[in-house]
Design goal:
two-stranded antiparallel ribbon; Rossmann fold; alpha/beta; 252 residues; globular; eight-stranded mixed beta sheet
Length: 252
């Protein structure tokens, strides 16, 4: 190899390494989330998608006492590959950034709807109005299971973390049967050491009985909550499965 050829080879190799390092750094070193003013509700936090075009919303509903801004940062590590990561805040301020939904799905529905409207008003056609992904953890799982059940048009893909069959009551079976043509996919996930693990399995059985496509995963060695450094390993495949139809449409 001549000196010129070797120098050219070395330049290309260094350029590729630089791009790889930059991409890696971008995926791991996220800044603070942007704030979204939501009329009549607390500000929401959000991250823009790292992909072009019109993208779905991944609406994350936090657990009781959790910090929505910090949760949003964790979800951005995996979610921005698929769409807008949006994290509204529950109505109760518990101090130091922590919030609660007060087990109030009516108020939560109003906040979620207002958050979508505010995001759509700010970014227009870049944001999907329908066919979005609803993600709920713990108390947020309760809220997500109510919203998804009653509004499957806007939220037809659910990722429910620590689901509990006691979160559904009344005419749930009838509503699920009505929803089966509109809810595309549901993924239920929690740890084997979580006290609601068996309840999560029962939710999966209810969805299967209603003929709604569902996957249930009880992760070994895991408890109620996933550590921040395990986000990609835990949630990337569920999100791929939930959004794969959208990905196919985007690539056409």
């Amino acid at each position: 190899m001549t000196r010129f050829a070797f120098a050219a080879f070395l330049f290309v190799a260094l350029l590729c390494a630089s791009k790889s390092a930059s991409a890696s750094s971008h995926s791991t070193a996220l800044g603070a989330p942007e704030r979204l003013e939501v009329p009549g509700a607390p500000d929401a936090f959000f991250y823009r998608p790292h992909v072009r075009g019109s993208r779905p919303i991944l609406m994350y509903l936090h657990g009781r006492g959790n910090n929505p801004a910090e949760d949003c940062r964790k979800w951005a590590k995996v979610g921005t590959k698929f769409g807008w990561v949006v994290c509204p805040q529950g109505p109760e301020d518990r101090g130091n950034g922590s919030r609660s939904w007060n087990n109030d799905s009516v108020t939560a529905t109003r906040i979620v709807t207002a958050t979508v409207d505010a995001l759509k008003a700010k970014f227009g056609h870049r944001v999907h109005t329908r066919g979005n992904v609803l993600i709920g953890f713990s108390e947020g799982a309760f809220v997500a299971m109510q919203i998804g059940l009653h509004d499957p048009v806007h939220w037809n893909k659910w990722l429910i973390l620590a689901a509990n069959d006691q979160y559904w009551f009344g005419e749930t079976a009838a509503l699920l049967k009505e929803d089966r043509r509109r809810v595309e996919r549901v993924y239920l996930l929690t740890g084997e050491n979580d006290e609601v693990a068996e309840s999560t399995k029962r939710v999966g059985a209810m969805l299967k009985a209603a003929k709604i496509p569902v996957r249930v995963r009880i992760r070994s060695g895991m408890g109620h909550e996933v550590p921040g450094d395990k986000m990609n390993a835990t949630y990337r495949r569920p999100l791929l499965w939930l959004t794969e139809d959208q990905e196919k449409k985007t690539k056409k």
